Fold this sequence. Notes:
The chain has six helices and no strands. It is mostly helical. The model has no long low-confidence stretch (mean pLDDT 91).
Amino acid sequence: QLAANHNPNPQVIDALVAAGSDVHDVNYLGETALIMAVNSGNDTKVVSALIKAGSDVNARDYQDRSALDYARMSRRFYVVKILKAAGARS
Length: 90
């Protein structure tokens, strides 16, 4: 998850998943790697790689916020579009 949070390279996501990392794990705030990637302002390629790896686009953290909520709050409308195309709901 931390690699997803601080990494602009989607190939690292692919390598971590291939090595057995679970994209559904959460941190102490209940954030998935996808939520952290959206919050950290990562490139849309990282967000797309996490979705491709099977991230739950509707997962919510302990504040009951999803990746879509965070993308909207930070006005990252292209990420909103990617998340919605992957099935994210409000």
